[in-house]
Amino acid sequence: MRVRENGGVRRWTRGAVLAGLAFAATVAVGDRVSLGSRLGALGLHELDVPGDPSRAVFSNRWHQVEVEANSRRILHDGVAVYLNGPVLRDGDTWSVLGVDWTEGVGFPWIATPVPVRRKRDLVLLDPGHGGGDKGAISQRIEEDRVTLDVAKRIGKILAAQGVTVKYTRDRDRELTLTDRSAMARKLAPDAFVSIHVNATGDRGVEGVEVFVMTSPGYASTVGGKADAAGYDGNRNRVLNIRLAHSVLDNLVQYTGAEDRGVKRARFAVLKGSPVPAVLVEMGFMTNPEEESRLISRNYRDQVAMGVARGILSYLTTARKPPDPVN
Ligand SMILES: [Zn+2]
How far is the CA of 81 from the centre of ligand 1 (A)? Predict the structure, then answer.
């Protein structure tokens, strides 16, 4: 698909860039935007990847975006992020869907309304499963117990930093998915973070991943139908990805776990949350090594520190003006 972005006549100014979403509608011709134009206007210049024409790197002193032709996976400041649609290359022009500029590439620089700040930030932690719903089970782990334990460790770190912490459950009890998003709606926290442990049939699979709500009209990262409807979970399109990127970045740094990326899914707790929301999968109990780590208190503290640091960093940066240009 041919990419046209104002035919190159527009003069990119700092003001135009910071207006963010305001000009998005005027440049998304053919529903795609040029990475060279957008990132170049922010001072991130394209570097060739020697011997590999299928990849490109855009960078400045503070940020780096690495893309691959026909792939939905990019590396944003070293963290894997899955877009709704693939990056395309047409001649020298690299492009992404307009929606992916906002929700996958340009999110650090896009001015977006941030909820009114309270005296103390409020975070709602959601330990997955509980009661009769054990979640995934291995010989040595029951998901609902690990999620509760780790959520409490995260809560302690946040509280020590002056954040008010609430839990969807703080003991072993059953909650429906609707109960959980109803709490997010009622409390209107600055961030909603759901905590889970992963499981799959392939014992070789390991690592951490963080989910955000899928954009309207697109299929989720792991497949499914392209639901055209917008939900409460789509309201915070920039803040959702900022929170997810920050949490995954810190989680990988503190645990050393494999980065499986920010992915998109219409999970009920994300779909129904009208506040910035993510779902963290802290590792695979079906991988023997990761299962052993998830049993250790020391590793749970590392997971908790990574998630908590990611939330704290989000709470600080989400309210700052966009990053400097050039
Ligand atoms: Zn789960």
Answer: 21
| Interval between CA 246 and ligand 1 midpoint (Å) | 21
Residue 94 CA to residue 37 CA, distance in Å, equals 9
pLDDT of 20-61, one tens digit each? 333 333 344 348 999 999 999 999 999 878 888 899 999 999
Confidence of residue 166 (pLDDT cuts 50, 70, 90): very high
d(CA 27, CA 6): 6
Q: Which domains does the chain have, with CATH numbers?
A: 6-105 (3.30.457.10), 122-317 (3.40.630.40)
Task: Scan for tokens 């949350």, then name that residue.
Answer: 273
Strand bridging mode 218-220 / 223-227: antiparallel
CA 159 – ligand 1 centroid, Å: 25
C-alpha 279 to ligand 1 mean position (Å): 9
Contacts of 178 (CB under 8 A, 6+ apart): 268, 272
Task: Give 195 Cα–ligand 1 centroid separation in angstroms.
Answer: 7
Q: Which helix (H) or strand (E) holds 202?
A: none
Confidence (pLDDT) at 49? 82
* Cβ atoms < 10 Å from Cβ of 118: 11
